[in-house]
Amino acid sequence: MRFSTGDAPSRSLQLGVKNPKVAGFKRTESFMSTAGLTDLPDIRGSTQMVERPVIMVIDDEPDALAAMLDALTRRFGGDYRVVPHLSGHAALAGVAKIQEEKLEIALIIADQRMPEMTGREFLARVRSIVPTAKRALMVDWGDHEVSSTVLQACALGELDNYLYKPWTPAEVHLYPLISEFLAEWTRVHRPGMELIYVVGDEQAPRSNEIRELLNRNGIPFGFYEVGSEPANRLIKERGAEIAAFPAIFLHDGAILGDPTDAQIMDAVGETSHELSCDVAVVGAGPAGLTAAVYAGSEGLRTLVVERHVVGGQAGASSLIRNYLGFPRGISGAELTQRAYQQAWLFGAKFVFAREVTGLRSRGARKVLILSDGREITAKAVVVATGAKYRRLEIPSLDRFVGKSIFYTTFGESRFVSDLHVAVVGGGNSAAQAAIHLARFARRVTLIVRSNALGKGMSDYLVQQIGSAPGIDVRLDSEIVGGEGSDRLERLIIQDKKRHTSETIPATLLFVLIGAIPHTDWLAGVAQRDSKGFIATGHDVDANAWLIQRKPMSFETGVPGLFAIGDVRLGSTKRVASAVGEGAGAVENIHRYLNETHQSGANEEERFFAASVRAA
To answer: In what side-by-side order are the strands of the sheet with 247-249?
Structure first.
């Protein structure tokens, strides 16, 4: 079986900085065909003939339909077959015929003002027939009455976005939006670029860990099962004897056998060897990346340490609809990869796959100890380590972790195709995961301890879940056990209100419950609450604060040590809040560096030692 990163964002880690021009990894294939078929290169050594996907347009106005058909065919006709219809009923028959011919529909555009069936009604019906197609509603400029229709349909997941007509010039008002729709569809439904190859056992936990590492860091790869024909061909072509799996075949010809995360990221990522900086940021989630962007853009030498994957928990969100500036939503992976690219362009350096294990002072500088024994020296430190999801304490499920149970959402959507999937959690991340997985899985069961979805989820997500045909919601429920042979097959759910148990089919389980901050390495250094969240600003114990001024908003009980994002006590657990805190922390850092410059190194070291004793 073969998987590839069709979902990976177009920009990723700067692979092998030897050639920065390759860092974008944008797919630029241009398939030429006049017979309705396109040549799709196959890494297994053959060429597949693949029918062009369909773009369907429905409008009851013949002139408007003809103009749209002409515009779309001129720009996209080489890669897609554009199919027009004058009514919703005719289009439904056309959808049925396309399905009979085993063809794919990439995008459906329907005009709202049609007499027999409105565009919204048509898109709602076609959603259950072709859930993988992107759906757009065409509305007239100035038609204010349709606003509520668009808002409600988007909230319920009946459409992905809307288009205006008239749309001339198409280069401004039509083509950019159509290209976005098609790019999103292609990422999921077409093989992605493969710059490196992973050969391993599909069900081995380590294989899944490596795939998540590469996927979440935006590194284009292909996965091939040990013993499969393409894997054997790859090994033969490289003339290698693989001593241990999983094995990684790099784009420069090198091979890594059963590598650690650090070895992988050193080989494919840009890991800095310069370990002295003005600002060290621990954690590359939204808060940490924002701090890196602002610090770098304002001339501070910035170094970011990330122990696992860029984006943190936010990077696992399939679609964030309420982030400012993205009306159609954006995946957490794409948002955080853009932030990474932005920080890199402002000069921020990165150290990947290393954990910070301790902090001490050396004169006016702070010293971070890394898990590989190296040390980073910085004038100021920002802690943005976020939090990890709690684990299920169910012994019967332990053996399935990494095979069928994951404490994140899986980046490769086709991995769940036609399977029974369960999601545990009552927050936005669990809701986004359930909605996304329902597009591919046979059935998704969302298991929530609370008695109402609205207690932990945003309203727009509650509405989408309520209207999604493929999601079963179990409130007042929790998992108490599971069964299966090599992989998970069934889950045992207990209804806490009715005191009954039920067994449901489940091949995959995604656990997104609670949060534990990554702050053990700061024990005895920074003030933390009983759960490990770091106190900052007015939450710092005044009796333990030993200098005249008050701690700044994001400053901990140690002068020059700042905490932002989910790891901070009292923070709002939202991406936008984390971004704001990242920007605010840099303003705090400038104030701190100015006062440190005036007070001198000896005074700074004395403050650090006294603060640690107080903590």
So the answer is: 2-4, 221-225, 196-200, 247-249, 255-257
Q: Would you say the C-alpha torsion 122, 128, 129, 134 has a positive or negative sign?
A: positive
Q: Name the most confidently modeled range: 47-51, 419-423, 512-516.
A: 419-423
Cα gap 202→1, rounded to integer Å = 8
Would you say residue 543 lies in a domain? yes
- Given a cut of 60, whether residue 103 has pLDDT beyond it is yes
Neighbours of 593 (CB within 10 A): 16
Residue 324, Cβ neighbours under 10 Å: how many? 8
Angle at 523 between CA 608 and CA 513, to 5 degrees: 135
Instruction: Report the b/e string of 112-151 with b at 16+ CB within 10 A.
Output: bebeebbbbbbbbebbeebeebbbbbbbeeeeeebeebbe
Q: Look up residue 499 and give its two tokens.
A: 């005191």
Is the domain of 447 the same as that of 462?
yes
Cα 414 to Cα 423: distance, rounded to the nearest angstrom: 17
Per-residue pLDDT reduced to its tens digit, 434-454: 998 988 889 999 999 999 999
Q: Which of 22, 75, 593 is nearest to 299 (CA)?
A: 593
Assess contact for 317 and 432: CB atoms under 8 A: yes
Residue at a domain's end among 448, 480, 511? 511
3-state secondary structure of 108: strand
Between strands 221-225 and 247-249, the pairing is: unpaired
Residue 218's domain comprises 2-27+192-268
Order of all β-strands in the sheet with 54-58: 81-85, 54-58, 105-111, 134-140, 161-165
CA distances to 129, 422, 479 from 445, rounded to whole Å, are: 20, 5, 12
Distance, CA of 545 to CA of 350 (rounded, Å): 32
> Whole-angstrom distance between the N-terminal and C-terminal Cα of the chain?
53
532 contacts: CB under 8 Å, gap ≥ 6: 516, 517, 519, 520
| CATH number of the domain encompassing residue 22 | 3.40.30.10
| Greater pLDDT, 289 or 219 | 289
